[in-house]
Amino acid sequence: MIYSYGEKETSYLKRKDKKLAEVMDRVGHIEREMETDLFSAVVHNIVGQQISMAAQETIWKRILDRIPEVNADAILSLSREDLKSMGVSFRKADYILDFAGKVQGGKFDMDALYEMEDEDVIKALTSLKGIGVWTAEMIMIFCLGRTDVVSYGDLGIQRGMRMLYRHRVIDKDKFRKYAKRYSPYGTVASLYLWAISGGVIPELTDPSVKKK
């Protein structure tokens, strides 16, 4: 499943931001895969914290090889030591097992997240051990498909803004200005900012990097 957006979102953003419009015209439509299972997405995101994407996917494959489906019952069939043997730190293993226990015991209602406002989703997810605002925002984008998420805590987003708008630093005031400009389609803007950060427009360099 791919994050869905179209002419309505792109036309709006192009009207609001000429610099972003130029990038959108050059890059074209961006496809980013979604995670369709919310429980699995939470576990996947905890696994991936503070490690490379390659390491995350290696560990994730080991988990999938061990259990047929990533759900609360299957996770709780594993011990801390089992998860550690797959490459998950004991700290993350405790977070994952605590989360699975709350879901299995009915203390955390996954389905309720779909009906919540964005701020309430963040509050609910960050009430879980090991889930911070950034992780909650990534789950909102890539699992819940929320339309207006621009993460101040995401280094790629900040880098993309610096490169696009030629700032050495993106402070909170600048960030809020741009996020407000993108609203209510901030998530689509985020896709392009990530692309910029990744070097999709070669001549856009990062002003924060000192030239040698």
Write the layout of secondary structure elements.
Blueprint: H1 7-16, H2 18-27, H3 38-48, H4 53-66, H5 72-76, H6 80-85, H7 90-104, H8 118-126, H9 133-142, H10 155-165, H11 172-182, H12 186-197
Low-confidence stretches: none
Principal-axes geometry comes out as globular
Query: What's the alpha carbon Rg, rounded to whole Å?
Result: 19 Å
Total E-strand runs: 0
Please indicate the percent range of residues in DSSP E strands (runs of 2 or more): under 5%
The termini sit apart by 43 Å
Structure overview:
The model has no long low-confidence stretch (mean pLDDT 95). Helix content is 58%, strand content 0%. The termini are far apart. The longest helix has 15 residues. α10 packs across α12. The chain has twelve helices and no strands. It has 212 residues and is mainly alpha-helical.
